[in-house]
Amino acid sequence: MKKIEIKNNLAKLIKENRMFHSIILSGKNYAEVITVSNDLARMFFCEKTNIDNDKCNACKRFLSNNIIDYLKIGDGNLPITKVQVQEIISRFSLTSVEKFNKKVYVIDCAENLKNDAANSLLKFLEEPPINTFSILLTKNKTDILPTIRSRCNLINVENEKIIDCKNNILVDMLYKNKEDILLSNIDIKKIEKSELIKLSEDAYEIIKEKFPLNTNLFEVWLEFILDLKFSISKNISIDNWLINVTEVI
Ligand SMILES: [Zn+2]
């Protein structure tokens, strides 16, 4: 899901008191995962559950890391220890001292939760104290222990950096008729080689999303990228590639 969709959906659930107790945010672009997590955690406390920082008192406090009922553990490298998990459990089992009546903890790189630390967390994930929410973050959901994974709602954060490249002329070209695809060669040949390699690599990621069943197109595309990198004549590579594209599109 796109960031904006995730934020809107979860804001709705928070407002309606239907929010999942435990979620895993997973995405290859980990910076995006962190952004969603920060926004989501802030939304729990925001006076209006605003998907963006509206500078309310709670948002300000959250951004200055000044909310006792919010805790983040995990440094991305070291294994997360049982002691760290127990700290969450004891801290979050106490009655809230804040007026928010919500407690949120985040586990960064949750794949670093191994055996005994994970085991200590299981019961807490399954039967959390009232209004306690956990957000587990990872690049790859399959790296998280299945026992943890099965107790959480999984949300995939789309890699928008790639998918939002809407102005990729190589992708736009695919929506033209065959004759016009072949005529695109004039414009494409004007693009400098290194730029064209970058564009075609970006386009490949978009194509996988937009034409997921056209494996012939993937092959043609990969061949073109290789050809561009290693052949002497960029223009011949382009001509051959466009002919191949018209045969598979
Ligand atoms: Zn706010």
UniProtKB/TrEMBL annotation:
The lineage of its organism: Bacteria, Bacillati, Mycoplasmatota, Mollicutes, Entomoplasmatales. InterPro entries: DNA_Rep/Repair_Clamp_Loader, P-loop_NTPase. One of its GO terms (biological process) is DNA-templated DNA replication. It comes from Mesoplasma corruscae. Gene3D superfamilies: P-loop containing nucleotide triphosphate hydrolases. This is DNA polymerase III subunit delta.
